[in-house]
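**Protein fold record**
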Amino acid sequence: MKRIGVIGIVLKTKEHVSEVNKLLSQFSDIIIGRMGVPDKESGISTISVIVKGTNEEVSALTGRLGTLSDVYVKSALTSMEVL
């Protein structure tokens, strides 16, 4: 069963930007859209990703993102089933 959800990603440094983008590309089949907002003052970047996938697919993406140092990830999935 697929669900709609949001993944919030915060990058404390720019060290892992390319790895994050690579992972998002690898999971592009479940990504509906994304928006990145850099905070130049603090040097922190945030990315919000809208996903449509199974719990397992979303968990696989967030799990891989979570292994990167200085990358913080949180996800929320709705209970509504979608096609």
Remarks:
- The CA atoms of residues 36 and 47 lie 4 Å apart.
- The beta strands are 2-11, 31-39, 44-53, 71-82.
